[in-house]
Design brief:
The chain has helices spanning about 1-35, 35-55, 60-65, 70-105, 110-125, 130-135, 140, 145-165, 170-190, 200-225, 225-235, 235-270, 275-300, 305-310, 320-345, 350-375, 375-400, 405-435, 440-465, 470-475, 485-490. The chain is mainly alpha-helical. It has a domain at about 235-494. Helix 15 (about 320-345) runs antiparallel to helix 16 (about 350-375).
């Protein structure tokens, strides 16, 4: 299991990093071709899509993955529910689109909302057999259809943007990507689902899935509800700026968590009931996730303005002010997400619900006063405040389920702190000598940041056997340079 999980983790990082890079390239190219208003207009449609998807989530996929027994008898039932849900949501979006667009004061958004309903239908009829790859930790097969669809979306959206120069380029790209994903899912796996509903199986899955459903609602409120508020109060251009800033911060931080979660959930599920093994796996995941996301957030904080001006252009300057709080909020979100994955895997999704509830309460307590005071930046500050307020609840649940206290958790984060300081040093030094960052200066600074990060990572591995090189050496079957005590690996005080 350890070998399979490590290989899966390696492939997950490799493949999903490629996906994030593709998405980043697409956003940068489209930002150069389109205006904030175009992104915001399409963003309103995405908000409506998120609402109907999250408020109708079944949680069946998580329920199937979490099962230790054979899942063959559950797949057709889950596929039938999934397809029926997709058809209903597509119809709902089509009918409600004019009223939703009127609510946001943007009638131009109507056709975008209607056509996005097709994507829900396409996802609903995607081959559910791919879930076997997830359960067996065959990440390279699991993600092929996503990588292919991302490449298609990248190429189609860029060509459409060059030809059309408006928000329809985003819409056409998304539709092309979803059609490709659906087709490739049937090419990738031989399972052929059929429409068949077993009510007993459906009820069994729903007992676990209801907590996932509730968590998804809270997840929307915590991570997509701010888009709804911005679209309503600040308008489409502000929403476009915020969405681009969020996508950059998410690629650098939350994307890492999603890479790990795709592997961690089935791996944790396989060893549920063996607390010591789950502790060790959790400690490894925290080390790796924090060692990648914390330095990325530091770089986005210190270089937000030059990155925005050089990469995106002058009209996106506001992105630089929104990026820092969103980046650090993303770091906390990745760490908390790793913990809530443990809760779900050991059969306690209700604990994940409590953590999400704390995030929502804190975020919405702060968001309205802060948006009045600081506008778009105030929203980002509220998101960061919501994540900070989640930490005590998260740690309390982690102590109850895994026996990991806050001291052990802080010790797990020490390598990330060292790496954060390592990447900050060359940025501070370069900033004292460079008055204006152009593409050459920015490239040189990022090169020095990378070298400093690598040097610190090697030092952490040689001295402590920790940090990002830990995964590569474990995949290669190598042990740490010195014997690391079991208590250090597990992060437990016991």
């Amino acid at each position: 299991m350890t070998d399979r999980a490590l290989r899966a983790g390696f492939w997950s990082v490799l493949l999903r990093s490629s996906m994030r890079l593709i998405a980043f390239i697409r956003n940068v190219v489209l930002a150069r071709l389109l205006a904030p208003d175009d992104f915001g207009l399409f963003g309103i449609a995405l908000v409506m899509l998120s609402i109907v998807e999250r408020f109708s989530s079944t949680g069946l996929r998580g329920a199937i993955i979490q099962k230790k027994a054979d899942i063959g008898d559950y797949l057709d039932t889950a596929f039938t529910i999934q397809a029926f849900r997709g058809a209903c949501l597509a119809a709902m979006l089509w009918l409600s689109a004019p009223y939703a667009a009127q609510f946001f004061g943007e009638p131009r958004a109507t056709p975008f909302i209607q056509l996005l309903g097709i994507t829900v239908l396409l996802r609903g009829v995607r081959n559910i057999g791919l879930i076997y790859y997830t359960r067996e930790l065959e990440v390279q097969r699991q993600n092929v259809h996503t990588v292919v669809s991302d490449i298609v979306e990248l190429l189609v959206s860029i060509v459409a943007a060059i030809l059309l120069r408006n928000a329809w380029a985003l819409m056409i790209g998304v539709l092309a990507g979803n059609v490709t994903s659906m087709v490739v899912s049937y090419v990738m796996h031989p399972y052929r689902p059929r429409l068949s509903l077993n009510l007993d199986k459906a009820r069994e899955l729903s007992r676990y899935g209801r907590w996932i459903f509730l968590s998804h609602i809270l997840s929307f409120l915590a991570y997509r509800g701010d888009n709804f508020i911005i679209g309503k109060l600040l308008g489409a251009p502000a929403l476009g700026i915020y969405l681009l800033a969020f996508s950059i911060s998410e690629a650098a931080t939350v994307g890492i968590s999603q890479m790990m979660t795709s592997v961690a959930f089935p791996a944790y599920s396989r060893i549920q009931g063996e607390q010591a093994r789950v502790q060790r796996a959790f400690s490894l995941a925290v080390d790796l996730v924090a060692s990648l996301t914390m330095p990325a957030a530091v770089v986005l904080w210190l270089l937000a303005e030059p990155i925005t001006l050089v990469v995106l252009g002058d009209r996106w300057l506001q992105v630089a002010f929104v990026l820092p709080p969103l980046a650090f909020a993303g770091v906390i979100r990745t760490l908390v997400s790793n913990g809530t994955t443990v809760y779900k895997a050991v059969g306690r999704p209700d604990r994940a619900f409590l953590v999400s509830l704390a995030t929502v309460i804190a975020t919405y307590t702060a968001i309205f006063p802060l948006i009045q005071l600081y506008g778009l930046v105030g929203v980002a500050m509220a998101v960061l405040f919501g994540q900070l307020a989640t930490i005590p609840v998260f740690l309390a649940q982690m102590w109850k389920i895994l026996g990991v206290d806050w001291r052990s958790f802080v010790r797990m984060l020490m390598p990330a702190g060292v790496l954060g300081l390592a990447v900050a040093l060359p940025v501070v030094v370069m900033d004292t000598f460079i008055e204006h960052f152009a593409i050459i200066e920015l490239g040189l600074t990022l090169l020095l940041v990378s070298l400093s990060y690598l040097a610190a990572a090697v030092g952490l591995w040689q001295i402590k056997g920790e940090g990002p090189l830990r995964l590569l050496h474990m995949v290669a079957g190598k042990r740490p340079p010195r014997k690391v005590a079991a208590s250090e690996l597990s992060g437990s005080t016991t």
